[in-house]
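Need the bound structure for flavin mononucleotide, inputs here:
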Amino acid sequence: MQGFYETLFGRRDVRSEFIAKPIPEEVLARMIIAAHHAPSVGLSQPWNFILVQSDAFKAAVHEAFCDANEEAANLFAGERQQQYRQLKLQGILDAPVNLCITCDRQRGGDVVLGRTHQPQMDIYSTVCAVQNLWLAARAEGVGVGWVSIITPEKLRAILGLPEHVVPIAYLCLGYVEHFRERPELEDKGWAQRQPVEELVFTEQWGEQAAEHPVYDALHSQRDWPRQFPQANDIGPKKS
Ligand SMILES: Cc1cc2nc3c(=O)[nH]c(=O)nc-3n(C[C@H](O)[C@H](O)[C@H](O)COP(=O)(O)O)c2cc1C
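Answer from helper R.:
Posting the output first, comments after.
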């Protein structure tokens, strides 16, 4: 149980700290197996894993990122735009392995148990696989960064995805110099974690839980994650 929480709270989105050390195939395989053991609607397992390791493909994806990032930057005004432009939001060329996790919207046929009234459940299942991989990577001491600042159409063209396959997550994977203790966006003053007790409602949307006993429990345990060892102590020891 302790190890699980250490991994959970030590997981980070990594963009700046990748090192060139290759990821052994066995380690990569374990992370993919962990992803493949995610829950999926009707056990449909709608995912595929596209390993991107060549300079040419990485360069094409990086170019797509740069185009989208420029568009994104221009949507912020004034100082916020300056701050945005100073953020590093991907490690495509730095990470030894890039991995695209896709969702095949035809997997399981026309009628899939659990998808009839909520067809997007295959997408959600694939996101569960992403999180499994992210946590397994952390347990292995491997950093993962999710890059969503890319037009899906461009990613689709670069990776040769058929029409019915959706790119869900483009991930950068690699060993790191260190894992940050807090999200990089928090460290750099972009955003802060919200007090969770303000996000919990009772019975209906908007009904704050202040009178509910869980409110005090959430509040009094707000520093609970800090008891787990420093993020950098988790994972196999560096060689
Ligand atoms: C769906 C999704 C998309 C994301 N896209 C990006 C991205 O394009 N670039 C980036 O730097 N971080 C991206 N992130 C990482 C978040 O910024 C990060 O998870 C958040 O700041 C919390 O930090 P932590 O993951 O280290 O706890 C993404 C995360 C998720 C879940």
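Comments: Residues 12-13, 15, 89-90, 146-149, 183, 185 surround flavin mononucleotide (CB under 6 Å). Residues 98 and 172 are 5 Å apart (CA to CA).
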